[in-house]
Amino acid sequence: MTTDRPVALVTGASSGIGKETALALVAAGFTVAGTSRDTSRVTPLDGVTFLGLDVASDASAAAAVQEVNERFGRIDVLINNAGVGSMGAAEETSVEHARSVFDTNVFGVMRMVNEVLPHMRAQRRGRIINISSVLGFLPQPYMAAYAASKHAIEGYTESLDHEIRDHGVRALIVQPAYTRTGFEANSAKPDTPLHAYAKQRQAVDRVLAEAVRDGDAPAVVAQAVVTAATDPKPKPRYTAGPLAARARVLRRLAPAGVFDKQIRKMNRLAG
Asked: Which is a Pfam family this sequence falls into (predicted)?
């Protein structure tokens, strides 16, 4: 089956940002393939074809991209949204745990890009949109592994974009702030918790829970993705919502000492 509508592939589309992004792309005129690690538990979405995908598996990534191409004839936009959260002090986080975070958040993106790019280069068009975070350019105490994975995505995407522009393809970043997705409840907790960090970690956990509760709706991020997918003159990065925009300004303009104090104040850390 082929389609005259542009085709978008959205990873992690069964809930949260991915679900709202898939629906927003359908409303914007796209044929949408969404993925989930367990399609048997997915609630059907009008206009979205669901496929099984584990982005931590080379074989699964290759099979999903092949299936989308066979069903719809092409992929015009890839949205790398699938990801995992991680909380806890850096010293409380084992290398094995950090590796699992990177295997999904970073290497999962790389797997999908490597599978999709040959097709996009052949058709001389396409957009790769990677969902980063304000933690891709801000530090976040007690989330070092997660922040590191998003910093990695920022560097990878920006470098990739310069490589593929000559082939008619762009790689773009969408940066959400705190979003009402249950992120903190679903994030992995420290695998080697230490008493030395317990009090501060719990305080930061409360800050994060409040921020997520009061954060942007996932639809705000979805609209930023649609803008990135359809913008006639795409920008390298798109912030999603006013808090993300303010955070970028703070990072860019605040003196280092002021910025450092603001991070500690926001996280209710002493000093």
From this structure: adh_short
Task: Please tell me the distance from the alpha carbon of residue 103 to that of residue 56, in angstroms, as a whole number.
Answer: 6
Sheet holding 7-10, edge to edge: 48-52, 31-36, 7-10, 77-80, 126-131, 169-176, 237-240
Nearest by Cα to 139 from 131, 129, 127, 148: 148
| Distance from the Cα of residue 170 to its chain's centroid | 17
Average pLDDT over residues 59-73: 97
Nearest to 237 by CA among 130, 140, 146, 77: 130
Listed by start position, the domains of the chain span 7-266
Query: Can you read off the two tokens belonging to residue 63?
Result: 């099979």
How high is the pLDDT of residue 1?
Answer: 64
43: which 2 tokens?
Answer: 């609630």
Instruction: Tell me what the mean pLDDT of segment 6-30 comes to.
Output: 97
Q: Is the pLDDT of residue 182 over 90?
A: no
What is the average per-residue pLDDT within 226-251?
A: 96
Rounded to whole angstroms, the Cα distance separating 170 from 264 reads 36
Domain 7-266 has CATH 1.10.10.10: no
Give the 3-state secondary structure of residue 266: helix
What pLDDT score does 185 carry? 72
